[in-house]
């Protein structure tokens, strides 16, 4: 192959050759480490346990049972095949009217039936991922920006920025007030952007929060609505985790603020909700994303743009049948919350036993784990160093706070709903063992006045994996009966 001359035209676009996707971040690196060596209870028991994926697998059995009891809801069964031709041909980008009705009703149900949604404002999209991009295309031009409170879901860097040319400006939230969004933080970020000649077109919030697992209280939501109205900018509220809230305080949608809090002024044209069935129902593979905008022009434009990422009619059909079954939905949501609460209790309880704290939360599919005490120094370099130990030695894929644009080093997001009970127990055992080992190292280093427990830990683990230590009859940690029964 010859040398390329300087004036040779670039074969691919700047977008195609740039790194706007963000695939090189530690968030995705963790997934790659898992892909190379995935844990399996019997086939690969020393592999990496995936705790970096916010997936809800706890209720798959309920859905499976429903599908078996409702064969007519699938078009590839004897009972449903008569609808095959119609479904295979339907391609209207408005979507099936019954589907929009069912989704509007479900959105209302997941918000405690305290608000209603108009089916004509439901625009579908390829997951919340597609919904965010379409919304960004509708609201902003290249170079414009959205404010986003930190820490935030790393996918936003791809979804809102990559192909649209839109920027994201962080609004710094801190652990001193449990990462609560404040008016002051909003004003500071807005003013800073102005100084930098960046035009702010909107504010993007995630409620319940990924990665915090917390819900926004009414006062904060009112502050947010006030702020965006005063600045005349849009509010995008990502409510994809609405039904993952498993205990008090309950989730409050921005829809409730604008419908019920009549004492605050709000231009509805500025409000847009992003929703999806990926988390609440556990269907990320179905790619059911929703844009619900109170702005007619946004609804019209987004609908046209949705042609690039529609939900297949087969999926719409199945979802219509399932979400219209009130009895099933009621049972599903109740059971889902119960199982998530139990997982949260088991996981955080296990962490507390070895002195690991998490931000108190009541939603999402993850916890925000505080490992600040385990850092050599309070820096992101130290955070990544610790993260590499956790991935390669403890063999758990957790996501470091820096990949969520957290402003403080030492926080990690750990997902707990994408695995079965046995894998969770093994993950907990590995974490406990890691901390015990670390404490031992600190004791030794205290004696020798050598505070570098990380490097000691790595050396000591080379010859003996955590699993080996934990599975040993001499393990200091009592083994779960669940694990014992299967190993
Ligand atoms: C806050 C948030 N928004 C959007 C998405 C994307 O969801 P979807 O699978 O529906 O595209 C995720 C996925 O993790 C998320 O956490």
What does this protein structure show overall?
The chain has 487 residues and is α/β, with parallel strands linked by helices. It has two domains: 149 residues, Alpha-Beta Complex (Aspartate Aminotransferase, domain 1); 269 residues, 3-Layer(aba) Sandwich (Aspartate Aminotransferase, domain 2). It has 18 helices and 13 strands. The strands form three sheets. The chain has a seven-stranded mixed beta sheet, sandwiched between helices. Helix 5 packs across helix 12, helix 6 crosses helix 7 and helix 15 packs across helix 16. Pyridoxal-5'-phosphate binds next to helix 6.
Output the structural class.
Answer: alpha/beta
- Strand order in the largest sheet: 2-8-7-6-5-3-4
Radius of gyration (Å): 24 Å
CATH topology category name of the largest domain: Aspartate Aminotransferase, domain 2
Number of helices: 18
Task: Summarize it.
The chain has 487 residues and is an alpha/beta fold. The protein is 44% helix and 12% strand. The protein has 18 helices and 13 strands.
Draw up the topology in text.
Elements: H1 14-17, H2 26-36, E1 49-50, H3 60-69, H4 84-89, H5 97-109, E2 122-126, H6 127-139, E3 145-149, H7 155-161, E4 167-171, H8 183-195, E5 200-206, H9 218-231, E6 234-238, H10 254-260, E7 271-276, E8 288-293, H11 296-305, H12 313-323, H13 326-353, E9 357-358, E10 366-370, H14 380-394, E11 396-397, E12 399-400, E13 411-415, H15 421-448, H16 453-462, H17 466-471, H18 481-486
Parallel strand pairs: 1-11, 3-4, 3-5, 5-6, 6-7
Antiparallel strand pairs: 2-8, 7-8, 9-10, 10-13, 12-13
Helix pairs in contact: 5-12, 6-7, 6-11, 13-15, 14-16, 15-16
The structure holds pyridoxal-5'-phosphate (PLP).
Family: Belongs to the class-I pyridoxal-phosphate-dependent aminotransferase family.
Catalytic activity: S-adenosyl-L-methionine = 1-aminocyclopropane-1-carboxylate + S-methyl-5'-thioadenosine + H(+)
Protein name: 1-aminocyclopropane-1-carboxylate synthase
């Amino acid at each position: 192959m010859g040398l390329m001359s300087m004036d040779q035209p670039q074969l691919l676009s700047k977008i195609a050759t740039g790194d706007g996707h963000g695939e090189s971040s530690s968030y995705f690196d963790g997934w790659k480490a898992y892909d190379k060596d995935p844990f399996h209870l019997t086939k690969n028991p020393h592999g990496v346990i995936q705790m970096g994926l916010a997936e809800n697998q706890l209720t798959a059995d309920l859905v499976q049972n429903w599908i078996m009891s409702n064969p007519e809801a699938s078009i590839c069964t004897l009972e449903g095949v008569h609808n095959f031709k119609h479904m295979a041909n339907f391609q209207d980008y408005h979507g099936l009217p019954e589907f929009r009705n069912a989704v509007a009703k479900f959105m209302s149900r997941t918000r405690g039936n305290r608000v209603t949604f108009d089916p004509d404002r439901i625009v579908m999209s390829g997951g919340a991922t597609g919904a965010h991009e379409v919304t960004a295309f509708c609201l902003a031009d290249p170079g414009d920006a959205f404010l986003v409170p930190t820490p935030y879901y790393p996918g936003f860097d791809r979804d809102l920025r990559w192909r649209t040319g839109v920027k994201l400006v962080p609004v710094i939230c801190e652990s001193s007030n449990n990462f609560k969004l404040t008016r002051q933080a909003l004003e500071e970020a807005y003013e800073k952007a102005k100084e930098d000649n960046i035009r702010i077109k909107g504010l993007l919030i995630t409620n319940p929060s990924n990665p915090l697992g917390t819900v926004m209280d009414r006062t904060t939501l009112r502050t947010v609505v006030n702020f965006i109205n005063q600045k005349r900018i849009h509010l995008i509220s990502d409510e994809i985790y609405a039904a993952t809230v498993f205990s008090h305080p309950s989730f409050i949608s921005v829809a409730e603020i604008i419908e019920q809090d009549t004492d605050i002024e709000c231009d509805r044209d500025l409000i847009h909700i992003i929703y999806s069935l990926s988390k609440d129902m556990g269907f990320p593979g179905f790619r059911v994303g929703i844009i619900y905008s109170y702005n007619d022009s946004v609804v019209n434009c987004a609908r046209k743009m949705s042609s690039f990422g529609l939900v297949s009619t087969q999926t719409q059909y199945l979802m219509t049948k399932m979400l219209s079954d009130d009895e099933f939905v009621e049972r599903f949501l109740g059971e889902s919350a119960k199982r998530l609460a139990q997982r949260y209790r088991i996981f955080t309880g296990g962490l507390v036993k070895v002195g690991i704290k998490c931000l108190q939360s009541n939603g999402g599919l993850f916890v925000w784990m505080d490992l600040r005490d385990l850092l050599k120094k309070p820096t992101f370099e130290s955070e990544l160093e610790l993260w590499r130990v956790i991935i390669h030695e403890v063999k758990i894929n957790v996501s470091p706070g820096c990949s969520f644009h957290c402003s403080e080093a030492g926080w990690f997001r750990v997902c707990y709903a994408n695995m079965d009970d046995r894998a969770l127990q093994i993950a907990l055992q590995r974490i406990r063992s890691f901390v015990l080992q670390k404490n031992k190292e600190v004791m030794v280093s205290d004696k020798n006045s050598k505070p570098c427990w990380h490097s000691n830990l790595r050396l000591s683990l080379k010859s003996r994996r955590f699993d080996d230590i934990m599975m040993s009859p001499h393990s200091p940690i009592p083994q779960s009966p669940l694990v014992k029964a299967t190993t």
